[in-house]
């Protein structure tokens, strides 16, 4: 039986999550439902996409992912079923699909199934669940609707030159770790074995070494590492880096490389 995942900005204090689960179980009593998260800030497509993008491939192929963030349908933002990398995604095309799959190939259709109710404010229960059940029961994309090309929205990429990389904070997790848009392969390419300085928050803090884990530093020390997501991360050992540094999403993170190799310095707070 395929796994059905739920991602939403509903929180857990209202009835939205259980009513959707109830609708799924009513149609599929033995359904395997997994909550990815319901703690997305309201309408924060970017955070939702980041979280789903970094976890969906850990689920078995054939899994069905319901994306319940900003689900209001319009002519510009239709309800869509998309298949990519042998996973199914159901949601509203408010650019969340392209942020999740990037440049990966896909097949998509506009959902053309009728709702079972006369209410149009709860699409996840009244439409997305219905589509998830149809896919679970073997329906093809062509049974759901007509082919569709999703909106393309490319995440901001870091700029770089021979001696520098200029990136930004792309996501702040629940530990207040700052995940940037600087990938490890770009760092290694530009570095080419040289020493470097990571400037945080307009140079108020400088990092001279990248560690392998959070424990490779003193408690409350600011550190940098490459996380399992493959991007440079600024963190604090057992602390909250975002609050201490006064940083938010889109705050600047710059790396400067020395032209000649020298001994690495210690991290300093100005």
Topology overview:
Blueprint lengths: L2 E6 L7 H12 L4 E6 L7 H9 L10 E5 L10 E6 L2 E6 L3 H6 L5 E4 L12 H14 L4 H4 L14 E2 L3 E9 L5 E6 H8 L4 E5 L4 E3 L2 E2 L10 E5 L4 E6 L4 H5 L6 E6 L10 E2 L1
Parallel strand pairs: 1-2, 1-3, 3-5, 12-13
Antiparallel strand pairs: 4-5, 4-6, 7-8, 8-9, 8-15, 9-14, 10-11, 10-15, 11-16, 13-14
Helix pairs in contact: 1-4
Distance between the termini: 56 Å
Strand runs, count: 16
Outline the low-pLDDT stretches: none
Q: Which superfamily, in CATH terms, is the homologous superfamily of the largest domain?
A: S-adenosyl-l-methionine hydroxide adenosyltransferase, N-terminal
The shape is: elongated
Class of secondary structure makeup: alpha+beta
Give the total of domains: 2
Q: What oligomeric state is this?
A: single chain
The major beta sheet can be summarized as: 10 strands, mixed
The portion of residues assigned to helices is: 10-25%
Class of the largest domain, according to the CATH hierarchy?
Answer: Alpha Beta
Number of helices: 7
Q: What is the CATH topology of the largest domain?
A: Rossmann fold
Order of helices and strands: EHEHEEEHEHHEEEHEEEEEHEE
Radius of gyration: 21 Å
Please state the average pLDDT score.
91
CATH architectural label of the largest domain: 3-Layer(aba) Sandwich
Work out the strand percent: 25-35%
